[in-house]
Each structure stands twice: as structure tokens, then as C-alpha cells.
Amino acid sequence: MKEFVFPGSFDPFTKGHEDIASRASKLCDKLHVLILNNANKQADFSVENRLDMAQMILNKYPNIEVSYYDGLMVDYLKNNNLNVVVRGLRSESDLRYELQMYATNGLMYDEYETIFIPSRGDYSYTSSSTVKEVALYGGDISSMVPIEIVDIVTKRFEK
């Protein structure tokens, strides 16, 4: 069985994340959407909130499983006999960063591979950080996050 992992902090999950997950799920038998903590960022949503939101959005895809791991992604891969990671690319700067991560992870895990999926045009400029900033100032985020979580995200940033 071909299984891939789509990791991220997903703080919050965006339409771009859903697009990458749905497209990646067509390339494998099972896609693990793996929620991780990013040591460089302070999460605005708890792990439980991020798990719940991801599950609300992705439950319509039968071969996608959502889980959380507290540790290095390569350790999750090794512990679960997995080796293929899916990463979405919005821009050239994303590619540069992801190539660095690919090289770093490859040093820790010889079997490690990455599949890059380019973002569709509509989602090229959407990031979780942008969503949070727009929501913080009372802007409409419905074009950036799936309908299932618009109210949750909006309420989180109400002043």
C-alpha cells in the first residue's frame, strides 16, 4: 500500500492546505495529514483545535487520516515505516526552504523522499499567517479557509 505524509502546523487549516491534501490523496492509497508543532512559531490554536478543524474539513476524503505528532517528522516516518512526504509550493521562496528541509531530513533518514505539489493560482498567496492577520482585523476570511471552519477562526480572533 502506497502511503504519503502531508505534515504541517495547520494553524489554521486553509483552502490551500485542503487543495494539496485532496490532490495528494489521489496519488496514494492513504494520506496521513500530520499536525506538528513548529518550534519557530507560537500556535494560536491548540493541538486539539487543529485536529478537530482538520478532521471537519478532511472527513469527506475516505483515504485521508489526520493525526498529531510531537517530535521530529523523520522520527514519525521511521516509527510508522513511511518515507514519502508531500509538500505544497506557493512560490520560489517555498521551494528554496523545502529543498533545505529535504536535504536536512535526508541526512537523518536515508529513505526520505519528498513530492512537491504546486499550489493552484487561487491559493498561491494564502498562508495561515495571512488568514490570522485578516481575521484579527475583522476581515472576511471565507475565500481563504474552508467553510467548515470560517466561524471557528473568525471567533478566535474577534476583538
UniProtKB/TrEMBL annotation:
Catalytic activity: (R)-4'-phosphopantetheine + ATP + H(+) = 3'-dephospho-CoA + diphosphate
Highest taxon, organism lineage: Bacteria
SUPFAM superfamilies cross-referenced by the UniProt entry: Nucleotidylyl transferase
Record key words, sorted: ATP-binding, Coenzyme A biosynthesis, Cytoplasm, Magnesium, Nucleotide-binding, Nucleotidyltransferase, Transferase
Cofactor: Mg(2+)
Pathway where it operates: Cofactor biosynthesis; coenzyme A biosynthesis; CoA from (R)-pantothenate: step 4/5
Compartments (UniProt record): Cytoplasm
Binding-site residues for substrate, renumbered to this chain: S9, K41, M73, R87
Pfam family, one: CTP_transf_like
Protein family (similarity comment): Belongs to the bacterial CoaD family.
Subunit structure: Homohexamer.
Protein name per its UniProtKB record: Phosphopantetheine adenylyltransferase
